[in-house]
Structures are given as C-alpha cells and as structure tokens.
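To: structure subgroup
Subject: Chain for Friday's discussion

All,

I'm putting the inputs and outputs inline so they're searchable in the archive.
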Amino acid sequence: MAARNSTSKSRPLYMISVAAELAGVHPQTLRIYERRRLIRPQRSAGNTRLYSEADIERLRMIQHLTQVEGINLAGVERIMELERTVESMRDEIERLRRHAEDAAGRRSAHTEMKAGIVMVRRGSLVRREGS
C-alpha cells in the first residue's frame, strides 16, 4: 500500500502556475529552486514543468524553512542533503536487519538439524537420536 501511495504522490499533475499557487510562492521562485536543485519537476513531452503532490509538499517544507525558520537556501540545500543521507541509512539499516533475521533463521534451522543428527555408537551399530 505504501508503494502505491508514494507512486500516486510522485505522479506529475500540476503546471508551474498551479504548483506555485498551491505552495504559496511565485512561479519564478520555483524556477530558482529548480536551478538550485532543491526541486526537480518532471517534464511533459512539450517540456512543460509538471509538479507532483510530493513536489508540492517539498515546496511547502522549503517555504517553512526559509520563511518561518529563517534558513537561507544554502542551509535548506544542506538540510535536504542530510535528509537524503538519513533516509539512505534507514534503508540500509532495514536491509541489514532483514539480512540478520535471515541469517539467524538459517543458523537456528542448522542447529535444529544438527541436534537431530547426533549419533550414538553402540558397538558397531550407529543410531540417530531424535528421529
């Protein structure tokens, strides 16, 4: 479900004038943000900028950081870079967690298998216990 939701949020819907109005900024501000690589709208076949819901959320966050928090665009760039790093690290932690769980499961299965193969010698007869 999350994948579908994030996909629908990334679908390009709004032309620059609508996106600017939704984000509460001037269209020229969006062009500046694009030049600074703070936002990367998709393009139509005719090269028109198209903004998604995720882009609008990002624009609102940039506006909050600059207008409410008083952070300049260089600071916003750094914050966004750090957020990408944190997200990447979260993904890596999740990947490693799954890997550790898989390894623990394999180790447990191996231990159980070994316990069933313990052999007891009686004279020349070999018998498995636990079978």
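Points worth raising on Friday:
The longest strand covers residues 119-122.
The longest helix spans residues 73-117.

D.
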